[in-house]
Amino acid sequence: MEVFKADVAIVGAGGTGLRAAIAVAEADPSLKVALVSKVYPMRSHTVAAEGGAAGVVQDHDSLEYHFNDTVGGGDWLCDQDVVEYFVAHCTEELTQLEHWGCPWSRKPDGHINVRAFGGMKIERTWFAADTSGFHMLHTLFQTSIKYPSIKRFDEYFCVDLVVEDGRCQGVVVIEVATGRLTFIQAKAVIMATGGAGRVFRENTNGGIVTGDGMALAYRHGVPLRDLEFMQYHPTCMPGTGLLFTEACRGEGGFLLNKDGYRFLQDYGLGPAEDKPRNKYMELGPRDRISQAIWHEEKKGRTISTPYGEVVHLDLRHLGERKLRERLPLIYELAEEYMDIDPAHSPIPVRPGIHYTMGGIYAKLNTETPLPGLYAAGECAGNGVHGANRLGSNSLVDIIVFGKLAGVEAAKFSKSTQFSNPAALETQAKAVQERAIGLVTKTGGKEKHSVLRREMGKSMENGCGIYRTAAEMQATCDKLGELRERYKNLDVEDKSNVWNNDWLGALEVGYLLQVAEVVAHSALNRKESRGAHQRLDGYEQRDDANYLKHTLAYCTGDGPPRIEYQDVVITKSKPGTRAYGAAGDKAEQERKKEAGHG
Amino acid sequence: MADTTKTIEIEVLRYRPEQDKEPFFQTYTVPFEDDWSVLQGLQYIKDDLDGTLSFRWSCRMAICGSCGMMIDGKPRLACRTFLRHYHPNKLRVGPLEHFPIERDLVVVVEDFIRKLESIKPYIIPKEPRKLEQGEYLQTPAQLEQFRQFSGCINCMLCYAACPQYGLDSKFTGPGVLALMHRYNADSRDGGRGERMALGHSEEGFWGCTAVTYCSEVCPKDVDPANAINQNKMGSAIDYFLRFVAPRGAGK
Ligand SMILES: Cc1cc2nc3c(=O)[nH]c(=O)nc-3n(C[C@H](O)[C@H](O)[C@H](O)COP(=O)(O)OP(=O)(O)OC[C@H]3O[C@@H](n4cnc5c(N)ncnc54)[C@H](O)[C@@H]3O)c2cc1C
Ligand code: SF4
Ligand code: FES
Known about the structure:
Chain A is of the alpha+beta class. Chain A has 16 helices and 20 strands. In chain A, strand 1, helix 1 and strand 2 form a beta-alpha-beta unit. In chain A, helix 3 packs across helix 10 and helix 8 packs across helix 9. Chains A and B meet through helix 3, helix 4, helix 9 and helix 14 of A and helix 1, helix 2 and helix 3 of B. The structure holds flavin-adenine dinucleotide, iron/sulfur cluster (SF4) and FE2/S2 (inorganic) cluster (FES). The site of flavin-adenine dinucleotide has 46 residues of chain A, from helix 1, strand 2, helix 4, strand 7 and helix 5.
C-alpha cells in the first residue's frame, strides 16, 4: 500500500478545507499539506451557497448586535465564547477573501455592499449576486494554487482515520479513478467534510453531503454534538428540494398562503409592512418560518401539488430588472426547472432540509477530544450555531474556523513527530481489507440505494419540523433495522475503476450512522428549542433541564449513548426568543433589566 | 404523485476499461415525470436498473460543474437538461467529447485542471494591501469588467465544443482563457504581464480559430469567445508595445 507523509492532512476541500490548507501554508511553507477531497475542490457543496456571508461593516451595526442575533437565533444553545470569537473575525476573513479576488457586489462608491438576511438586526450580509458560495469557493480554490506546499488529492475518498497511541495519525483514502488505497500518514488531521443533509429525503444538499467525516470521527470515539438540530429551510423547490435563497426575502419577497395572505403575521412575526424590515415577517428566522408553513398546512391554507403542500414565494413586485441583477440564479432556477417567470408568477415552495447545526464535537480552537484531530465547518459541532443557524453565518463559519483549524493543526504538527509507520501501516492495511471486503463479499441481498431511500423517508416521518416521541421511536427502530440490513449488503459493481457503486455503499454506511445519532439525540431531548420542536407535552424550552449540549457516543454495533454537557454562557442570559413587534418589546425589557442590575 | 406511466429510452455509452474492449451503447427504459432532468433519469438507472453505471454529479442545480456530458450530440449539463424535451423520442448520452474516457460517462479532466493551474488564476496585487486597510475599492463598473468571466463553473462544455481543442489539446482552451482574462481585467490585479507569456503563444489566445461554439454551449453565459477576442486585440497591442517600450517598464 502506498504511503504519503504529510504534516497536516485535511479531509475536505470545500470552503473550510481550502481555507485551512492556505492557513497551514501561510503559517509555515515548509509544512507539507495533503488536501483530500472525494470530488474536485470546486465541486464541493460550498459552491451551491447563494445568499451571502455575514460580517459587520455598517457604522450603525456592531459586533454586539451580531453576537446577540446569533445567540438569540440559536435559542441560547450557542457557546458564547465561540460566538464572541466568531463575530470578531468575520469581517476580517471576508476582507481577506476580497483581497484574494472574490467578486463581492459593490456600492456605487466601490465599497462592499450588504443585504438583509433573516434574524439579523442590521444588514450585514456580503454577497456576490446570488452565487456567493460559488465565488468564495472558486476564489479559495484558485488562490490555493499559489501555495506549492499544498498537495491535492482530488477525487480521493476517505475511508477511515488511523488512530494509534490515542492520537489521530493519518487517513486511508481510495483513489476513485483506480480503486487503489493510499495511507496518508499525518501528524495532524483536519476534518472539513461538510454536513449530513442527505440523511433526509427532500433537501437542498448535493449528493456528496453524506456526513462522512462525522461518522468516521464518531467511530473513533469522538462524540457528535447537538445533531438533533437539523435546519429546515422554508423556501425549497417542491420535489427536488433545490433552494431559493433567503436573499429572495432579504430583497423584499413575500410568503403567501393559498389566499394570497402574508400568513407570517399570524405567527408572532408581524405586523406586515410593504417594505422588508429586519427580524420581522419574511425576515424572521428559518425555524420559525418553516414551522409557520407547517401550521398553515394543518389549517388547510396551503396549495396542493403533486409534490406535496406548498406556499408561494412572491417576487413579482421586485420587477424583472432587480431580479436579474440581484437574484440571477433564482431566476434561472425558476425558469429552467419550473417553467416559471418569477417576475410574473409566484414560485411554489416548501420547507426542505438544509443545514446540519451539530457535528463533530470541537472546542473553540477546533480541536476535538481525539488528540491530533481537528474539525471545522459544517461537519463540526463547535457550538457557534446553537439550536438554529442564522442564514449567512455558515459561509463565515467555514472561513473563520477553517483558518483557525489550519493554524492550530500547523502548531500541533510542529510539536510532534511522525511515529514508526509499521504499526500504523498494519492498521491501514486492516482498513483496506475492510473497505475492499465490502465489494468482494458475495451472497448479500440488500441494495444500498434501497436502504438510503428507506432511511430518508423514515427521517422525514420521525425527525421533521415537528416531532413526537412515538414517531421518533419508530424512526429509531427503523434505523436499527437498517443498520442490521446494511450488514447484508450486495455491491453490484465489482470493478476498480470509478466504482461509485462501492463509494455509494460506503456513504450509506456513514449516513445510517449519522441518522441514528440524529434520531436518538432528538428522542432524548424532552423540550422544544430552535429546530427541535415537539408536540407531545414538551412544547416549551426547558432551560432547567436542557440548556445543554447533546453528546452522542458510539457504542459499537448499536444505538448511541447520549450524554449532556453545559452550554458556555458568558454575557447573554437565556431570554425570550421573539421577533417582529414582540421581539422589539422583548429587547426593550432586556435593556431595562440590564440597566437595573 | 404525478403520472408515472410515461417512459423514455435512454441510450448510454458504456465503457469499463477492465472488461470492455471498446465502448458500446446500452439502452435503458426509464419512467419519468415532466420535471425530471437527464440527471434524474441517470440516477434512476443507477439506483433501480443498473448499479454499475458511473457518472459524476453533485449539486443538481447547474453550479458545481460535475455533470457535463454529450446529450444527443451536444455538450450539456445533465442536471439542467430535461427529459420531456426529448420525449417521445429516445435520447443518447455519452461522455464529453475531446477528453479521454475514464469509464462510462466519466472523462479524465487532468488536462483541464493542469491548464487552469498554469495561468496563475489568482490576484497578483497591483498594490499590496493589508487587512487593516479594509477592502480594495472597486466600483460596480470595474466589477462589470470581469464579472461575467468569473462565472465559469469549470464544466468544460466549451472544451467539448471547441474544434481547435479537439484537434490539438495543447490549446489552452476557452474556459481557462476566459479565466485568465477574468484576472487580467480585475482592477485589483497587476499580473497581466506574467500571465500573458502564455496568452501570447500559439497555445494561448492565438490558438483560437473563432468558431464561437464555446459561447453557445456555455450554461453560464461566460462567453469565453468574447474573452478570447478581447485578448487577441490586447495581445496584438502588447506585442507591438514590446518594440516601443523599454523592457520591464510598466506592466
Ligand atoms: C443550497 C445551499 C445554499 C446555502 N447558502 C448559504 C448562504 O447563503 N450563506 C451561508 O452562510 N451558508 C449557506 N449555506 C451553507 C454553507 O454553504 C455550508 O454550510 C458550507 O458551505 C459548508 O462548507 P464546508 O467546507 O464545511 O463543506 P463542503 O463545502 O460541503 O465541503 C465538504 C468537502 O468534504 C469532502 N468530503 C466529504 N466526505 C469526504 C470523504 N469521505 N473523503 C474525501 N473527501 C470528502 C467533499 O469532497 C468536499 O470537498 C448554504 C447551503 C446550501 C446547501
Ligand atoms: S466557460 Fe462556460 S462552458 Fe466553459 S467551462 Fe466555463 S462555464 Fe463551462
Ligand atoms: S450536478 Fe452540479 S452541475 Fe449538474
